[in-house]
């Protein structure tokens, strides 16, 4: 299946949801004009890492985000992968992904499983504990968030359900961009999947963020890379490449799960 994917690499206004929400529609429109089947945003784009103000700025039950993404998916007739946003529900804060189909219906949602202590997420957020699986034009896909890519066992778990694409929204600091690119390539190679990763650019009071959003094929080649400036880029991938790679190198069949822990 051929899939056209737009990566929306944006700067995020620190702690300013109104400014950030206003950025989304023009990018969805641009992706639709480029013929995209899906547009992807970075991690926690509504607030950035303004964690100590989440009681004031996190999206209550994700309602504002869900309403906007649903409307835009329907209006522009494409899948909107909403990166992730800071939300509040049941008295706790979560780093949450929402993905909407062309009909405006929620395809899946995911709460970040591995909280990033170096940026104090574990002090302010509750961790998710559920897998997410969805389909794009009949192709199985899954999605994680940023620091999750350092846990190959989690991405493997998510990939076991026939997934062919792993989406990765992120706020990944500039100093570790070389690791970002190597980790994404490794996750693509070992899971014989496409990896579509969207990082933010710009900076917050603690970190500059290095962009280099990209798409990796199932051999781990970086087939699209964005620089370190805000931009939207679009690429068409052929997901049957995953069948070819899994055919000549049957890694999934050769697993020995009885030996692993
Ligand atoms: O793992 C890293 O180096 C960066 C992770 C990160 O920035 C995040 O999870 O938000």
UniProtKB/TrEMBL annotation:
<protein>
    <submittedName>
        <fullName>2-oxoglutaramate amidase</fullName>
        <ecNumber>3.5.1.111</ecNumber>
    </submittedName>
</protein>
<keyword id="KW-0378">Hydrolase</keyword>
<feature type="domain" description="CN hydrolase">
    <location>
        <begin position="3"/>
        <end position="239"/>
    </location>
</feature>
<dbReference type="GO" id="GO:0106008">
    <property type="term" value="F:2-oxoglutaramate amidase activity"/>
</dbReference>
<dbReference type="Pfam" id="PF00795">
    <property type="entry name" value="CN_hydrolase"/>
</dbReference>
<dbReference type="InterPro" id="IPR036526">
    <property type="entry name" value="C-N_Hydrolase_sf"/>
</dbReference>
<comment type="similarity">
    <text>Belongs to the carbon-nitrogen hydrolase superfamily. NIT1/NIT2 family.</text>
</comment>
<dbReference type="InterPro" id="IPR003010">
    <property type="entry name" value="C-N_Hydrolase"/>
</dbReference>
